[in-house]
Structure formats: C-alpha cells, structure tokens
Design brief:
Blueprint: E1 17-22, H1 27-41, E2 45-47, E3 58-59, E4 64-66, H2 67-74, E5 82-87, E6 91-93, E7 96-99, E8 101-103, E9 109-113, H3 128-147, H4 165-170, H5 177-191
Parallel strand pairs: 1-2, 1-5, 4-6, 5-9
Antiparallel strand pairs: 3-4, 6-7, 8-9
Helix pairs in contact: 1-3
The structure holds zinc ion (2 copies).
Length: 192
C-alpha cells in the first residue's frame, strides 16, 4: 500500500474521535465503526480500551440503559477527542421505547447500541455483514450530529431520521452531497 499523501511520514495524528466500548462489546463492530468514521467523515478515529458497563445508567424497571446519562458521563473537556460510546445492551431515552443511538447535537459525545442491530427478519439473528453495516451507519449518523449536522430529508441520505431497522436498512452508507459539504465545513471549523 502506498503512503497516504495527506499524512506526513512518521507523524501520528492525534485522535479526533474515540470509539469507547462500554462493557463487553463485539470488537470487530468497534473497529468497523471507527474505520467508517475515518473513511467517510475523514476523522482520525481510534478504539479505546473498554470502560465498565455504565451501571449508573441502568433503568432496572425497563432493563435498558438511559442514553442521556451515558452521554453526560462520556463527554470530555473541550480539548479531549469526541467520544462515541458503544454498548451491547439496549438503550432508551425516558420518552421513547428504545433508541439505536443518541448524541449531543454540536456537542462532545454520542452513544450507540448493537443490541437491536443483531436482529434479523422474523426474530432471527441478522447476518454478520448486515449487523456490521448497520453499526457503521448508526456510528456515522450520531457522530455527524455531534459535529453539528441535523437531519436531512434527501432520500437515502444517512442523515435521514430512521425510526427503526427497516428504515435504517434503506439508507445508503453515506451522505448526500449537501450533507457532505456541511460536514466538510463543520470539520474545518472544529478541528483547524
Ligand atoms: Zn438523528
Ligand atoms: Zn443529506
């Protein structure tokens, strides 16, 4: 492989996004999420060592984890990389049955769950490549929100709101040209 022309030899860029496993998480999924943040958002993304499962966010009566509490605990200082928490357990916010991911718009942190991404049709298990593609999509969508990008109405664009797996599966693994332009601008504003 030839060296990346944008990266001076011998200089490791500081991470701009940390993918943070929270408890036991499929490590391939974590790597795929980070690789897609790198490839499609041009953000230097790494996977960190796992943190403990966020027991402080467990809503015992629902058997789910409160995404808002996890976001507050994940968000670092202004100088710290953006953080994307990755959880195998089901996530919710108080007024919704579940969420695949949640983020601070224009903030510092996002969180996503692999729990429902593993579901196949008819209650079976999704094929591995389906689960991994979904994970990449949710990670990109949530980090684009953290960068400051809002929802988009363009058919197929990854920033369309998706209420569940069926609509998620219909989205492209990528952004429409208008969202790409906005993301380029937001990245420059935040990181240069
Ligand atoms: Zn969204
Ligand atoms: Zn768009």
């Amino acid at each position: 492989m030839s060296p990346d022309p944008d990266m001076p030899a011998g200089e490791a860029a500081a991470p701009q996004v940390e993918v943070v496993p929270l408890g036991r998480v499929n490590s391939t999924a974590a790597q795929v999420v980070a690789a897609n943040l790198q490839a499609l958002l041009a953000l230097n993304a790494i996977v960190t060592p796992a943190l403990p499962e966020p027991s402080q966010a467990l809503l015992a009566a629902r058997g789910q984890y409160d995404a808002g509490i996890i976001l507050q605990d994940l968000a670092g200082s202004q100088e710290a990389p953006l953080r994307l928490g990755l959880l195998d357990k089901d996530l919710c916010v108080p007024f919704l049955t579940y969420v695949l991911g949640e983020s601070q718009l224009g903030g510092r942190a996002a969180v996503m769950s692999l729990h429902r991404l593993k579901q196949g049709e008819g209650g079976g298990r999704a094929q591995r490549h389906v689960m991994l593609e979904r994970a990449a999509k949710v990670g990109l969508h949530e980090i684009a929100h953290v960068m400051g990008l809002e929802h988009c109405r363009t058919a197929g664009c990854l920033m369309r709101f998706s209420a569940g797996l069926t609509s998620l599966d219909r989205l492209n693994l990528g952004f429409c040209p208008a969202c790409e332009r906005d993301l380029d601008r937001l990245r420059i504003e935040r990181f240069s």
